[in-house]
Design goal:
Largest sheet: 9 strands, mixed
Number of strands: 20
Order of helices and strands: EEHEHEEHEHEEEEEEEEHHHEEEEHEHE
CATH topology of the largest domain: Jelly Rolls
CATH class of the largest domain: Mainly Beta
Distance between the termini: 57 Å
Shape: globular
CATH architecture of the largest domain: Sandwich
Number of helices: 9
Length: 394
Amino acid sequence: MSTVGTAPIDRLDRLDWEHFAAEYWDRRPVLFRGSALPHAPFDRNEVFESAVVAAQRPAGHDRVGFTVGQRRLSDPGDLLPGPEDGSFDAYDRRLAGQLAGESFSLVIRGLHSRHHPLWARERDFLAGLWSRVGQPGAGATTTLFHGTRSPSESRTHRGATFLYVVLGSRRLELDRAGHRVAAESAPGDLLYWPAGYRHTAPTPAAASPPSATAGVHIGIPRESPRPGTGLHSLLAPGPNPLSPQGGWGGDGIHVPDGDPPDDLPAGLPPVFAAALDHFRQAARPAALQRRVVRETLRQATNGGLGPVPPPARPGHFTDDDAVRATERVLWSPACGRQLVAACGHVLETDLTAPELSAVLGLLNAGETVLVSELAPRARSLVSRLAGFRAVERL
């Protein structure tokens, strides 16, 4: 993209969500200098820690990508960040030696789902935006781009994008329907552009060795959800009862070639029969209502960032302990049961509505709760909420 006819981007020294929503949201790009952010959406150390967790336990092949030069590696091995690196700087120095100066690119999708401190910080940052424009039902995405390889291809984003610069300087050119702007950003800066903008990262002048950059993209969907969106979370089957470790599928649904044999069984194959039974059970009014309430509570507490990091182990408390809430805890009745949610996690409790209201009323009011005064079922609830990171020991 040529810089001819490219205008400079608006630069603001203060982030005011009300002003942003009125002047820039879904309208035009803007750059916030680092000093404009009283509370940054990301911390450099937390971003690196999240990258390490993602590299050690990748949730899927498409979540962590690593490229050397023009080669995408299917098994990067020790080229991914590890806990022994300790920081981006140390990691980059190690790779400079291992790769003999060849450029690299590390991409991690779903970054907020790996590390609770990063998720909590990003959630708190976006809360101000959601209060003005509404929280998207589909949830925002969080992607880390790190490396010395600068992609030169153009890409048009279907959603709105925030780019937080973690390391190194970045230059982007943005274009939508002939409206072009250029942005130069430094560590700590936050760049926003609406949906429909094509962004290009111009290839920098040759440098030896190339300097590393790191940025975190927050993608916010701006299209209307497609019909059926959300049904998966309401009707998705749990573990396959016939093969809990193997999931759904396998030889039970294989259809051989050729004419069918004469001795076909009268009933459905076991995997189909189990799936049909699951959907029959899930479609019952009581079961469906519980799933709807569960999904509502999950979205009400995940901060628009799903999936959330997995819970920790439940807390262990003694009679000498006192606890308090660190997060607001929501609950709702559902067909005779009480569902409780915090930090995007949901549980069921045997507590009655009055019992639950009494315990959560104290916690949500910021009161200190003595464990010795809790009934066994209330202790179990507090223990699990500690695993959700919604309760802490004093």
